[in-house]
Each structure stands twice: as C-alpha cells, then as structure tokens.
Amino acid sequence: MEGRTNGEEPKSWEDLYNINLIPSEIFLKFRRELQGIRVGVNLELCNAPLNDYHAKLVLKPVAPERMWKVILEPLQQDVQLVSKKIPVTKYLNLQVGVGHSFLHHAIGWKWKLSTCFGGDGISRIRNKTSLRLCPGVDFRFGWRADYVLPEITGGLGTDEPLFNMDSGRLQASLDRIEAIFTHGAET
C-alpha cells in the first residue's frame, strides 16, 4: 500500500510557530497605601489595534478579603465600581461592575466571565508572570499562547494515508508589560 498525502505542501517551521515579543499594552502603575486603602495611579499605553492612552485612579481595600475596587478615569469622565474576580468553578471567574459616564450622562453595568483557558477552536493559555526587581518595584508580564497539539493519524485499506502527521502550531505573544512602583513597600 502506498501512503497518499492530503495534497498539502509540508509546512516550514516558520509557518508552524510565531512568537511576538512586542507588547500591545504598556502600563505604569504607582501605588501607595493610605489608611487601609491602596491608592493607585495607572498610566496605560495601548498601541494595538489603535494608539490609545488611559489614565486611571484606582482605590481598593488592602485587606485580602476585599470584594471591590473603584476606578476613576478623568480623561474619559468615567467612574466604575468593580467586584473582584469571583471563582465560579476551578477555572471560571465572574466579575461584575457598575459605572457612570459623566460625558454621556449614562449609568450602566457590565459583567465578564473569564478563564485562562479557551479560544476560538484553538487551545489557549493566558497568564501573568510577576518579577520583583527590588522592594517597591515589580514587573508583570501578560502573555498568551495559542496552540494546536501535534497529531499523528493513519489508515490501511481506506482513503486515508498509511501515515500522516500534523506538526501542530504555536502562536505566542507578550501582550502586556506592567511596571509597578509601590511607595513604602515592605522590605
């Protein structure tokens, strides 16, 4: 029996993987604790798909059982009260929020179900990795990897080839870099 190919040219290694190390979001975060409340100033620079800039003032309790945070966006004239991510299952989180836009004179609410797994027909891992440079200076890297695992198939006496291998694919990217500066951080 002669194995038949499926008509596709073999893919080069460059077609099978793509790693993008240019982040689409860069955040500078300045934090300070005042009487049990963490006050943060976030400067967010987003370069993909549009060049955009956001400045936010974030207030949230320092206590580990905190359930909320307040986000003020003076340039967009928005204020939001957002819950922390609430675990629904081991891998699924729910977050809810209510906000007011002074610019549009509107009140609204939003919700988000999120997980670090999943994608559109492709397996995806999203994660954040933290690196402490020194007390009071932390870097956080948001990355993702979309992948299709390799697959080996075959058949004998059918229209399938005797041996066929799909090498899989990997697309990884560094989506976000955060530099976090905490005033009065513990040593």
Automatic annotation (TrEMBL):
Q: Which organism is it from?
A: Dorcoceras hygrometricum
Protein name from the UniProt record: DUF7781 domain-containing protein
Q: Which Pfam families match?
A: DUF7781
| Residue ranges of domain DUF7781 in the record | 11-183
